[in-house]
């Protein structure tokens, strides 16, 4: 689309026009399927919404974005109607803008940093980022420029957002990249964790197809440390990037966890959402059941909303702290409530109860209250004496977060330095203590965000390039 020569941004547009959010399907409609909840803006609305940006000389939105996205610059292009130019600029700092625009908690990152947040009416950055990037894909304008092959090979372990972003950056620099993925389907948690109602799988598949078309090789069903020794990769490749995530479910550590009907969050989400028969997980019957979800993060929210779609009779979240301290996204909390999920805050599960036949009958809980702030300002929760009660349940989904997966003791992985909770220790270039072995994403940070995995991966790709240039 040709650019409109008239500058469409003005310092006062924000005051003349309110923020809009993209159209959302009604809760009654969306619980019938697993498709995305939000539609996109139309072109006119994108231009108007982008023109609300006041073009701060020192944009706080870019500071709030872990990728330092050049937000005001692509907003100005979008306001002028140059959607393809805007998307190209957004891709220059982000390898997965079509994904981040859908799943980033913008309300905690770029949008909350927007100077207009003081007025309560920030720019709809995420929705505009999604529009321009979908537009560019739809118009065949997601170009791919790679340097001539430089004769060097890099092995990437894991095909989550970290692995994909690292492979993308290195391929553009002329490296031959091979991605080793333990699962039969690539995409990491983008495919086998985040439900399709937040991120449709075709969006991830489209990106993976683009990488493959541009020379990135995917070896699926190859678990490094079991099927392929790390030592072989170090011998056969010039560098290695570890993007294997942290997907070992944390236990609830309460009596009754072994009962039939207690299920870990991730296999449940994969079975219901991944949409690929290749995962081959046992079906969890949810129809007509009382589902209780333990935890208060994004995974808990996704379990609740998936249970509602799978025809649960009720879907109740038990979280031991209050709403303000809940780590899950506020936007997704609202969506979950609209769809019929119920939240019980300041509620600590203490045991899962047996129905007398080895299956779940309910969850015993105790009410909590918040005490005085500690030295870090955090208000610790404590049990209210005599406040025990039971929440009836016949399916309990445990969503207490994840730890890094441990590697076999005889694998070269054990030589990699880790911290007290098992996260990989890296230097400022994302390099581990093994020269030429880099790492990023959840395997380093613990459970985090897609945008953080992309950021680490971009840094690691630059680190790998510098490292290999220096040993040439
Ligand atoms: C249910 C759920 C919902 C979430 N929702 C959001 C959200 O809305 N927004 C957001 O920003 N973040 C969200 N997250 C977090 C986000 O998905 C992760 O932070 C991100 O995917 C981490 O990326 P990664 O590349 O480090 O690892 P992963 O995405 O975990 O990918 C790691 C990959 O490595 C593979 N692998 C592991 N070991 C090996 C091995 N030895 N050999 C080969 N392959 C291996 C795994 O199979 C996997 O495919 C969510 C997470 C979950 C679980």
Overview in brief:
The protein has 472 residues and is an alpha/beta fold. It has helices at residues 13-16, 27-30, 43-50, 60-64, 71-79, 83-91, 97-103, 110-113, 125-138, 161-172, 189-192, 201-213, 230-236, 265-273, 298-309, 330-338, 442-445, 450-470; strands at 153-157, 176-181, 217-220, 239-242, 248-249, 262-264, 290-294, 314-318, 342-344, 347-354, 360-373, 379-383, 389-392, 395-398, 402-403, 437-439. The chain has three domains: 13-138, Fumarate Reductase Iron-sulfur Protein, Chain B, domain 2; 153-246 and 403-470, FAD/NAD(P)-binding domain, CATH 3.50.50; 251-400, FAD/NAD(P)-binding domain (3-Layer(bba) Sandwich).
Characterize the structure shown.
The protein has helices at 13-16, 27-30, 43-50, 60-64, 71-79, 83-91, 97-103, 110-113, 125-138, 161-172, 189-192, 201-213, 230-236, 265-273, 298-309, 330-338, 442-445, 450-470, and strands at residues 153-157, 176-181, 217-220, 239-242, 248-249, 262-264, 290-294, 314-318, 342-344, 347-354, 360-373, 379-383, 389-392, 395-398, 402-403, 437-439. With 472 residues, the chain is an alpha/beta fold. It has three domains: 13-138, Fumarate Reductase Iron-sulfur Protein, Chain B, domain 2, CATH 1.10.1060.10; 153-246 and 403-470, 3-Layer(bba) Sandwich (FAD/NAD(P)-binding domain); 251-400, 3-Layer(bba) Sandwich (FAD/NAD(P)-binding domain), CATH 3.50.50. The strands form four sheets. The protein has a five-stranded parallel β-sheet, sandwiched between helices. Helix 3 (43-50) crosses helix 9, helix 7 (97-103) runs antiparallel to helix 9 (125-138) and helix 14 crosses helix 15 (298-309). Mean pLDDT is 93; it is low at 1-7. Residues 103-104, 157-163, 180-183, 188-189, 193-194, 198, 223-225, 243-245, 247, 269, 298-299, 302, 405, 441-443, 447-451, 453 line the site of flavin-adenine dinucleotide (FAD). Flavin-adenine dinucleotide binds at residues 103-104, 157-163, 180-183, 188-189, 193-194, 198, 223-225, 243-245, 247, 269, 298-299, 302, 405, 441-443, 447-451, 453.
